[in-house]
C-alpha cells in the first residue's frame, strides 16, 4: 500500500531526469545490441526554474514527453563507472520475433511452443562457477533482477505489449515507472503467458504454459551524487502441462507426427512448476579521489515440482521402477535457496577502472527424499576487474574470480576498430542436481570433479558503405563435462571435447530500401568426449526485407521473410520428470528450412507486427519439422503483436 500511495502522488511531485549529454558519434552500445540513442551521465549543470522544475517545451509551448525523456540504465554500467542512459527502443529490427526463443535468433532448443523447457543450442560457459540448482530449463523466461532496467523519467512512463499468437499462444507485458523525486524512481512490471497446447489440446483453454510474473524496482541517488541505491524484487510462477512428446508410430501405429491438434501424446495428467523469488540490492558510496565502496545482496529461492497421475495412461511414459512412492502419484520436489553477499572497492585511475571484491554464498538444496533432507553449502570468492579504455575505439579488460578452494574463472577482452579477441578459462562446479537427485523414477548421489573449459573467441569487423561483415570463430576445449546420458542419468565424461566454430554475420544494404541480414555458424566437435555434445553442424539465419519510411515518414515499415536452418543431428531428448535434456541416438532431427513472413510497422510510438509462421508448409518433401525428438515445430498460423508507450 505504501508503494501505491507513492505512485498516486504523481500529480503532486516534481520530476526531473539525471542530466545527460548527447551520445558521441560511433559509440558502441554493446555487442549484439540494436543501436539506440545512449547518453552518458554527467554532473548536474545549468539553472533550474524557480519552482524546481525544468519543463521541456516545443515551439508551440506544449509540454513534450517521449522516448528521449524516459530513460533507463543498467546496474553493470553503474558498477563500472560508465553509466549510460538509454532511450526507449522504438526500432523495428527483429520486432516480429517476440517470443523468448525467437529473440535469441533461435539459438535455443525448446519443445515447440512458447514457455516450454529450453536449452542453448551451443555450449556456453556458465556465469556462475559455484553451485547452482541445475534446474535451468525455464531460465529463459525469468527476468533476472541483476540484469534489469532501472529508470529515470521526466513523466510517468508506461510500456504495454500484447502478443496474440496463432492457436491462442498469448503473452502480455506491462511496465510502469516514475520519478517520485528528481533522484528517486519507483517502478513495477507484470508479465503473463497463456499458451495453448499445439499438440493434442482437449479444450479451448487447454494451456501448455501458464506464467504469472511480477517485479518491483527502485533506484535512488543522494543529492551530492556520492551514494546510489538500486533494489528490486522479482517473482515468477511458471507452470507447464507436460505432454511427453508424440507417441512414436512404431509404438502406436495409429499415431502420426504431423496431425498437431489430433496428435497422440504420452502425457495428459502431468504438470511441472518452477517458482522463483529473488531479492536484489546494490548500493555504492564514493569516498573521494575516485575511490568507492559497494555492496551487493541477493536472496534467491527456486522451488521445483513435478507431479504425474500414475493411475492413468501417463504411467506408460515412465520407467516401471518407483523409488519414492509406490502408489498412484509421482511427486518430485526440490527447493534451492541461497544468500549472496559481495563487498568490494572500485574506482578509476588514469583512465583505468579497477575493482576488487570478496563474495560469500551460502545456501542449500532440499528434498523430502534426500537421505539427510538438506544439502548445505558455503562458498567464499575473491576477485577483481581491470578495464582500460585506451581511446574511443580501443579498450582492454581483464577480470577473474577464485572460489576457495578449487574453482576459478579468468576472462580477458581486447576491442579495437577492426578486431575483437576474448579469452575465458574456467573451472566450475557441477550443478546440485547433477550431484544428488532423489526422484520417484531416477536417483543418484555423485561426487563429480569440477568441469574445465578454455574458450577463445575472435571477430573481425569490416564496415563498408553498404556492407558490414563480422567473420568470427569460437574455439572450446571442455574436460570433465557432466551431462545426462542415454539412460537419463547424470554422468561425467572421461575425455576432452574440442569445438571449432567459425561463423559469419553479414548485413547488406541493397539499393535504398532493401536489406539482407544473415548469420551462419559451422561446428566441428572432436575428441574423446565429442559425442556428449549434440550440436548441428550447420546453423543459419537469413532475413531479407523491405525497410523504409512511408507516407511522408509518418509510418516506418519492414516487410520481409525470415529463414532459419539447422542441419540434421541427434538432438537431445527431454525428460519432464526432472526437467532435463539428455542424450539419445535413435531419433534424428532432420534438416529443414523454416520460413516466416513478417510485417513490422511503427506509427508514432506504436509498433505493430504481423507474422505468418512456417510459410513453406506443404511445399517441402517432409510434412513438417521437429525441434526436439517427438516434438514438432509450428504449423502455419498468424501472429499479431503490438507495443506502445505512454509518457504522461
Describe the protein:
By secondary structure, the protein is mainly beta. The protein has one domain (70-647): Maltoporin, Chain A. The protein is 3% helix and 52% strand. It contains four helices and 39 strands. It has a 22-stranded antiparallel barrel. A three-stranded antiparallel sheet has the order 1-2-4, with no helix packed on it. The model is unreliable at 1-35 and 41-61 (pLDDT under 50).
Helix fraction?
A: under 10%
- By CATH, the superfamily comes out as TonB-dependent receptor, beta-barrel domain
Estimated structural class:
mainly beta
Oligomeric state of the chains present here: single chain
- In DSSP terms (H or I, runs of 4 or more residues), the helix count works out at 4
CATH class: Mainly Beta
Termini separation comes to 22 Å
Looking at the structure, what is the overall shape? Answer: globular
* Largest sheet report: 22 strands, antiparallel, barrel
Low-confidence stretches: 1-35, 41-61
Strand content: over 45%
Report mean pLDDT, rounded to a whole number.
90
The CATH architecture can be named as Beta Barrel
Please compute the radius of gyration using only Cα atoms: 26 Å
Protein name: Putative porin
Biased composition (Polar residues): 22-36
Region (Disordered): 20-60
Biased composition (Basic and acidic residues): 50-60
Amino acid at each position: 500500500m505504501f508503494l501505491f500511495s507513492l505512485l498516486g502522488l504523481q500529480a503532486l511531485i516534481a520530476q526531473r531526469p539525471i542530466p545527460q549529454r548527447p551520445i558521441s558519434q560511433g559509440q558502441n552500445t554493446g555487442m549484439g545490441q540494436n543501436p539506440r540513442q545512449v547518453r552518458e551521465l554527467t554532473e548536474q549543470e545549468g539553472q533550474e526554474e524557480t519552482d524546481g522544475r525544468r519543463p521541456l517545451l516545443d515551439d508551440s509551448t506544449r509540454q513534450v514527453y517521449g522516448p528521449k525523456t524516459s530513460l533507463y540504465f543498467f546496474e553493470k554500467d553503474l558498477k563500472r563507472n560508465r553509466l549510460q542512459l538509454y532511450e526507449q527502443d522504438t526500432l523495428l529490427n527483429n520486432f516480429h520475433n517476440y517470443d523468448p526463443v525467437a529473440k535469441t535468433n533461435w539459438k535455443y532448443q525448446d519443445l515447440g511452443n512458447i514457455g516450454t523447457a529450453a536449452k542453448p543450442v551451443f555450449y556456453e560457459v556458465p556465469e556462475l562457477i559455484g553451485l547452482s540448482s541445475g534446474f535451468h530449463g525455464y531460465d529463459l523466461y525469468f527476468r533476472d533482477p541483476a540484469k534489469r532496467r532501472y529508470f529515470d523519467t521526466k513523466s510517468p512512463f508506461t510500456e504495454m505489449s500484447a502478443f496474440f499468437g496463432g492457436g491462442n499462444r498469448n503473452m502480455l507485458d506491462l511496465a510502469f515507472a516514475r520519478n517520485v523525486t528528481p533522484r528517486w524512481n519507483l517502478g513495477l512490471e507484470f508479465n503473463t503467458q497463456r499458451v495453448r497446447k499445439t499438440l493434442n489440446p482437449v479444450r479451448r483453454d487447454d494451456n501448455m504454459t501458464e506464467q504469472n510474473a511480477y517485479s518491483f524496482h527502485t533506484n535512488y541517488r543522494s543529492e551530492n551524487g556520492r551514494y546510489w541505491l538500486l533494489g528490486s524484487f522479482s517473482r515468477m510462477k511458471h507452470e507447464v502441462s507436460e505432454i511427453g512428446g508424440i507417441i512414436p508410430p512404431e509404438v502406436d501405429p495409429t499415431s502420426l507426427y504431423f496431425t498437431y491438434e489430433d496428435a497422440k501424446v504420452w502425457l495428459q495428467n502431468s504438470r511441472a512448476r518452477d517458482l522463483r523469488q529473488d531479492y536484489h540490492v546494490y548500493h555504492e558510496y564514493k569516498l573521494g579521489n575516485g575511490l568507492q565502496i559497494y555492496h551487493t545482496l541477493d536472496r534467491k529461492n527456486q522451488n521445483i515440482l513435478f507431479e504425474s497421475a500414475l493411475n492413468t495412461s501417463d504411467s506408460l511414459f515412465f520407467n516401471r521402477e518407483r523409488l519414492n512412492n509406490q502408489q498412484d502419484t509421482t511427486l518430485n520436489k526440490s527447493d534451492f535457496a541461497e544468500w549472496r553477499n559481495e563487498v568490494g572497492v572500485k574506482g578509476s585511475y588514469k583512465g583505468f577502472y579497477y575493482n576488487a571484491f570478496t563474495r560469500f554464498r551460502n545456501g542449500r538444496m532440499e528434498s523430502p527424499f534426500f537421505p539427510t533432507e538438506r544439502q548445505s553449502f558455503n562458498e567464499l570468492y575473491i576477485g577483481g576487474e581491470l578495464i582500460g579504455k585506451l581511446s574511443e575505439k580501443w579498450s582492454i579488460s581483464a577480470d577473474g574470480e577464485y572460489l576457495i578452494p578449487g574453482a576459478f574463472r579468468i576472462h580477458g577482452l581486447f576491442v579495437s576498430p577492426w578486431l575483437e579477441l576474448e579469452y575465458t578459462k574456467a573451472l566450475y562446479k557441477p550443478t546440485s542436481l547433477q550431484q544428488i537427485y532423489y526422484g520417484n523414477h531416477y536417483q543418484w548421489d555423485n561426487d563429480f570433479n569440477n568441469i574445465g573449459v578454455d574458450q577463445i573467441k575472435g571477430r573481425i569487423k569490416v564496415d563498408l558503405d553498404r556492407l558490414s561483415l563480422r567473420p568470427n570463430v569460437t574455439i572450446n576445449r571442455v574436460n570433465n563435462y557432466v551431462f545426462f546420458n542415454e539412460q537419463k542419468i547424470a554422468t561425467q565424461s572421461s575425455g576432452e571435447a574440442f569445438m571449432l566454430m567459425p561463423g559469419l554475420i553479414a548485413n547488406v544494404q541493397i539499393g535504398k530500401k532493401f536489406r539482407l541480414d544473415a548469420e551462419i555458424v559451422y561446428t566441428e566437435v572432436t575428441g574423446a568426449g565429442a559425442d556428449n555434445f549434440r550440436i548441428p553442424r550447420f546453423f543459419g539465419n537469413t532475413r531479407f526485407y523491405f525497410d523504409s519510411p512511408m507516407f511522408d515518414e509518418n509510418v516506418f515499415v519492414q516487410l520481409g521473410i525470415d529463414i532459419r536452418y539447422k542441419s540434421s543431428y541427434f538432438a537431445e531428448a527431454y525428460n519432464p520428470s526432472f526437467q532435463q535434456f539428455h542424450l539419445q541416438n535413435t531419433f534424428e532431427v532432420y534438416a529443414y528450412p523454416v520460413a516466416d513472413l513478417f510485417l513490422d510497422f511503427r506509427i508514432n510510438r506504436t509498433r505493430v507486427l504481423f507474422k505468418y509462421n512456417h510459410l513453406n508448409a506443404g511445399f517441402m518433401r517432409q510434412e513438417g519439422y521437429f525441434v526436439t525428438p517427438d516434438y514438432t515445430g509450428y504449423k502455419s498460423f498468424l501472429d499479431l503483436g503490438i507495443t506502445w508507450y505512454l509518457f504522461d
